[in-house]
Amino acid sequence: MKVSIELGLSSQGAPAPVPMDLEELLATRLLVQGNSGSGKSHLLRRLLEQSAPWVQQAVIDPEGDFVSLAEKYGHVVVDASRNESDLHRIASRVRQHRVSVVLDMEGLDSEQQMRAAAAFLGGLFDAERDHWYPMLVVVDEAQLFAPAAGGEVSDETRKASLGAMTNLMCRGRKRGLAGVIATQRLAKLAKNVAAEASNFLMGRTFLDIDMARAADLLGMERRQAEMFRDLMAGHFVALGPALSRRPLPVKIGSVETGARSVTPKLLPLPDAPAENMQELIFTAAPDEDERLPPPPRRAPAPVPTENILSQLARATREAPVQAGPAAPTMSPEERQAAIDQALKEILSDPEAGFRTAAVLYQDFLVRCRIRKVAGEALSLRAFRRRLAIAHAGIDSGELEKEDSPWGEVISMAGQLPEDMQSVFLVLARAAHDGKPCPSDAGVAHAYGTRSLGRARRLLAYMEEQGAIVCRTDGRGQRIIAIPGLAWETAPGDPNAPHETVSRSEAAE
C-alpha cells in the first residue's frame, strides 16, 4: 500500500503540494538541518501529525516539545528519568504492542540524556524479530546524541549513545526502524550517522562549513550554497527518493498541536517604582519553596595538580601509625626472593605476554602484598626491566656474579625501545646457552603479539640497529649472533611452532 502525506507547498513557481512517500521514507531515512529558529521542530511536528494514523512513532525529545502529541494523537509520554534497564524493557514493549511514544528528557543533563537515549534506542533495536513492525524514530537535536567529537561527557556515555544512533541509521532498516534525525549543525553531527540518510530537508544556516556540507549532500555547486542564508523560517530545500529527485524549495504546512516552548516575543517592561522592584526580588513569597526547584549544588573547585602531587608525596613519606603488633621485617634476601617468586608466578601464565605491562604490574603488586613485601616493591619502569630479564630466564644469582656478562647484555638491551628489550634478552639467552634460535612464533610470543609478520619485521629492525646479526645455513635454518660477545644460537627452524611452556620453564 502506497501512502503519501502532504509536507507543504512548493515555494518555487506556482504553489503546489509537496508529497512525501511514507513507504519510501521508511526504507531510506531522513536528515533535517537548520539553525535554531529555522523551523525544524515545526517540520518534525508536521511530519509526525500527518503520518500518525499510518505508522507507529517514537520521538526522542530532549526539550519536552512533543509531549503535546499525546493529547490529540494518543502518544504515550515516557519519562526518561528512569534507570537504563527500565527504559530498555519499556522500548521492547513499545515495539511489541505497537504504541507510539514520546521519550521526554526535559530536566536531564546532557550525559543523562545520552544514556537514556542509548538505552531506549537499544531496546527498540534489540526487539524480537516477531515485533519488527515499521516504526518512525524521530530524534530531535541529533548532534547531542551523535556528536562528531568528544565533549564534556564521559567516553563510555558518548560511545554508547553514538553506537545506538549508528545502529538506528545504519542497521535499523532491516528491523523496521526508519530514522528521522534533526540537527542544528551538520558539522557537529557524526558523519557516519548523517551519511546513511537518503532524504534531506535543509533549512536556514549561516556558517560556511554547514552551508558547504548541505550543498554537497544536495548535489549542488558550492556557489549555490549561499542560498541557505536567505531561507525564511519554515522554508526548506527538499531532496531524496521520498520527496523529490531534484532540489525543491518547500514551505512547511501548518500544524494542529503546539510546543510548550514558543519563540520569544517583545513585551513592555512593568511600570513600577524601583523601591517596589527591590522588595519583590529580595523578599521571598510565602509559597516560593513549593513552587521553585531547589538551587543546583555547586561543584567543588578543582584542586591544582601540583597540590594533589604534594599531598600524595606527604602521604607516602608520612606513613600512618598502625595499631597492633608490627609486621615482621624481611631481610634483603627474603625480599628479593619474594619479588622473584611473584615474577615467576606471573610468567607461568602462557597468556601473560599478551597483556599490557600496566595490567601485569597491578597483578605483581597484589602478589607482593600477599607476601607482605613492605613498601613499594618495584616502580613500573623497574618492573618492566625485571620482567624482561625474568622473561629471558636470567635469575638474580647470575646478575650478581662478578664476572657475569649479563650486565653488558642488559646495557645493550637498554639501547632498544622498551617493548623490544624482552625479545633481545630472549635471543641473548638462547645464544648464551647455545640453544636453537627461537622461531618466528617464539619471537612473536616474547614480543606480546600473535602476528608472525610483526615478529619478522622486529628482527629486521633489530638487525638494522646492530643489536643482532641474522644468517641462514644451508638447510634454511636461522642463526642469530650477538655482536661483541661471540654468542651464537644453534640453527633453528623459523617456521616451527612456539612451545608455550618454554616461558615458565625459563623463569625457573
From TrEMBL:
Residue ranges of every copy of the AAA+ ATPase domain listed in the record: 26-305
Pfam families named among the record's database cross-references: DUF87
Keyword line: ATP-binding, Nucleotide-binding
Region (Disordered): 488-508
Highest taxon listed in the record's lineage: Bacteria
Molecular function terms from GO: ATP binding
InterPro entries according to UniProt: AAA+_ATPase (IPR003593), ATPase_Atu1862_pred (IPR014588), HerA-like (IPR008571), HerA_central (IPR002789), P-loop_NTPase (IPR027417)
Protein name per its UniProtKB record: Hypothetical ATP-binding protein
Organism expressing this protein natively: Azorhizobium caulinodans (strain ATCC 43989 / DSM 5975 / JCM 20966 / LMG 6465 / NBRC 14845 / NCIMB 13405 / ORS 571)
Lineage of source species: Bacteria, Pseudomonadati, Pseudomonadota, Alphaproteobacteria, Hyphomicrobiales
